[in-house]
Design goal:
32% strand; alpha+beta
């Protein structure tokens, strides 16, 4: 999820699944700068549920995430410290169990090349793997180029196009690409 709207929709859906719960406490954080966040104690004492959940999000250094911890009261009062510890550890365990992935903001590109230059292109663009490649009378490959490399890629491809008429490229849309599982 990448927006407040997506986070709220997810949290509303989860709350409806557990509408008979005593508490559906949650927090979310979105945006690459991690500056869009919110939390709710949902009836627990102030600062004992939503804020510890947000703290777990911050301590795992993730963004574009929403975490809800659902509690059905079982007759044992945990006290303020007990609630904070329970919500914090449950949220952190949920984040780690779900897995933490790295996403890259990039742009799709299709590169067409002769076989003569293909290995040079792969060498110059070794920072990224082709998403798919077709080998016919020419090589046609699709990449997602991270934002920080787009000017370099454009410059190199123009150099290749100047020396080989079979080389061409077409930029596509900007996307968010899941690249690596971190934890």
């Amino acid at each position: 999820m990448t927006s407040t709207e997506e986070a709220n929709a997810y949290l509303t859906e989860r709350s409806l699944l557990h509408k008979n719960a005593t508490h559906n406490c949650w927090a979310y954080m979105t945006g690459p700068d991690k500056n869009n966040w919110y939390f709710s104690d949902n009836g627990e004492p102030s600062g004992t549920a939503g804020k510890p959940i947000l703290g777990s999000i911050e301590s795992t250094d993730v963004t574009n995430v929403a975490v809800m911890v659902t509690r059905y009261f079982g007759g044992i009062k945990l006290g303020v410290r007990g609630l904070i510890d329970a919500y914090s550890s449950t949220a952190k365990n949920a984040i780690l169990k779900a897995g933490i992935y790295k996403y890259t903001i990039g742009k799709k590109i299709k590169i067409i090349s002769s076989y003569n230059i293909w290995n040079r292109i792969l060498y110059d663009f070794k920072f990224v793997e082709p998403k798919s490649t077709e080998f016919t009378d020419k090589v046609q490959a699709y990449f997602v180029i991270p934002q920080e490399y787009s000017e370099l890629v454009e410059s190199r491809l123009r150099q290749y196009e100047a020396v080989d008429s079979m080389v061409s490229h077409v930029w596509g849309e900007e996307i968010i690409d899941k690249t690596d599982k971190i934890a």
